[in-house]
Amino acid sequence: MTESRKIGWHFDNSYSRLPEPFYAKTDPEKAPSPELVIFNHPLAESLGLNAEALQSEEGVDILAGNRIPEGAAPIAQAYAGHQFGHFTMLGDGRAVLLGEQMTPEGKRIDIQLKGSGRTPFSRGGDGRAALGPMLREFIISEAMHALGIPTTRSLAVIVTGAPVQREEPLEGAVLTRIAASHIRVGTFQYAAARQVVEDLRTLADYTIDRHYPEVANDPNPYVSLLRKVMEKQASLLAKWQLVGFIHGVMNTDNMAISGETIDYGPCAFMDTYDPATVFSSIDRQGRYAYGNQPGIAEWNLARFTETLLPLFDEDQEKAIDIAEQTLSGYAKLYHGYWLAGMRSKLGLFNEDQQDETLVKDLLKIMKDNQADYTNTFRALTIGDLNALPMCKTTEFNEWHARWKARLESEAKSESAVKQLMRENNPSIIPRNHRVEEALEAAVEGDFSVMESLLAALENPYAYSADQEKYVAPSASETPYRTFCGT
Q: Cα 238 to chain center, whole Å?
């Protein structure tokens, strides 16, 4: 038996059977002296992989891009995208899709090496990645998974032994990312820009077959595809907002058709509640601020809808009418998911007409008092109002009385209310200063800080004693800024 088979690779590479304009056959570049620095054992096992064998010399060579496993078909995917509103033809400039692993449960999962060198789509870049940003993606993507938010995940990070040049020389690294697929809104934009309708139809049919086979026999499966993607994105964006996650760069090439969170660049979690919060150093106008995210998702979906017009109907006016009617449902979908989530965060089981006012009044009090988003809901959950400086204000006390009356109207037990709140209000999030602390130590060779943080983030709803030291926000008055890894 070959080492590749011992590892458990079981590739079936359907994307590389699409028309060749959608990808370029590309091997990863060699890493001079690869070394495994972080590995996700449970994820490896869930993929049907032998975790021990994957950490062997041959396994590390595969994760570094030095060896192609049996059955893989390495490609760089082509796509386009609106980056900060401006359309550009793009593609995987620093990532290679090794292939699609078939899991023991029959799921089809992309195995991608990120930071594995130049591709035909690199556009002058080096195709490499630095260790810090790859570790950031590992931490945040795994934290998002633990929070119950659909996301790509991180299997491993390898240091390559070759420096990458940014503002200064940095240690090079490769992240092994897994995803339901890497099909993006930008993939459809790429197909539409080429103006070959049959290729567009092929991509749409492939996407339906891979992600939404239940709509394949609908009267108009392409309209059904749009509805499915809208629903997935509305649910995803609500989940982001409910935990205070800020993606940072919601370009159309960073919106996955599967409904997973993808591409963790200048992302972060909000501390003080403020809808205008922006962390990304490149988002100078606040386009992707926390409060703008649901609307940007709708804008991205409009761009997706435009690509599908030729498939909706041969009559362009009729196709546009179908598109407008369908897309108009997004706002209601999102609002429904968000409000239902907020009810759960407040321990409310049933619906009441005044619930939205109750929620928005709390958010206004939080903003006015510069309250910490996560810790406000945490304090309400455990009943520790003294942890909230705003508890001394008249506005909060009046709101608190209204909330208590609303809870009493449902006649649910206190334990049931607390349980619902604990299930929807994380005790811990990846605090920005804790992430930076872990990254700084790891880049210097000490991974113990990162490992401790990852362990604490594994069950964010546990409210356990070992999570306490990760609860407090940063005491620094310097505004937090994140940077794109490229």
A: 13
Closest CA to 110 of 102, 99, 120, 121: 99
Report the relative pairing of strands 23-25 and 75-77 from DSSP bridges: antiparallel
Confidence of residue 475 (pLDDT cuts 50, 70, 90): confident
- Which residues sit opposite 86 in a β-bridge? 83
Buried b (16+ CB within 10 A) or exposed e, 153-179: bbbbbbbbebebeeeeebbbbbbbbbb
Contact (CB, 8 A) for 293 and 247? yes
pLDDT digits (tens, 9 = 90+) for 205-259: 999 999 999 999 999 999 999 999 999 999 999 999 999 999 999 999 999 999 9
Tokens of 24: 């370029």
Q: Is-contact 92 179, C-beta < 8 A?
A: no
In tens, the pLDDT along 124-155 reads 889 999 999 999 999 999 999 999 999 999 99
Query: Residue 70 contacts by C-beta under 8 Å, 6 or more apart in sequence?
Result: 2, 4, 5, 9, 11
The pair phi, psi for residue 101, each rounded to 5°, is -80, 130
CA distance 210 to 80: 21
Phi then psi for residue 412, to 5 deg, are: -95, 150
What's the gap between Cα 59 and its chain centre? 26
Q: Which residues pair with 111 in a beta bridge?
A: 99, 178
Match 């604990």 to its residue by tokens.
422
Q: Is 26 exposed, middle or buried (0-12, 13-18, 19+ CB in 10 A)?
A: buried
For β-strands 129-130 and 80-83, DSSP reports them as unpaired
Q: Is the dihedral of CA 74, 79, 81, 86 positive or negative?
A: positive
**Cα–Cα distance, 253 to 80 (Å, whole number):** 6
CA torsion, ordered 439, 27, 16, 87, to nearest 10 deg: 60
Q: Shortest CA distance to 241 belongs to which of 361, 151, 362, 149?
A: 149
- Closest to 314 (Cα-Cα) out of 197, 434, 474: 197
Measure Cα distances from 2 to 58, 70, 383 in Å. 11, 9, 58
pTM of the model: 0.96
The pLDDT score that the predictor gives to residue 387 is 85
Of 282, 280, 330, nearest to 304 by C-alpha is: 330
Whether 253 is catalytic? yes
What CA–CA distance (Å, rounded) separates 175 from 173?
Answer: 7
Which is catalytic among the residues 61, 92, 110, 253?
Answer: 253
Half-sphere exposure of 458 (CA within 13 A, CB side): 11
The runs of H, that is alpha helices, within 147-259 are 185-194, 197-211, 221-243
Q: Alpha-carbon distance 436 to 482, whole Å?
A: 10
The first and second tokens of residue 419, run together, are: 């349980």
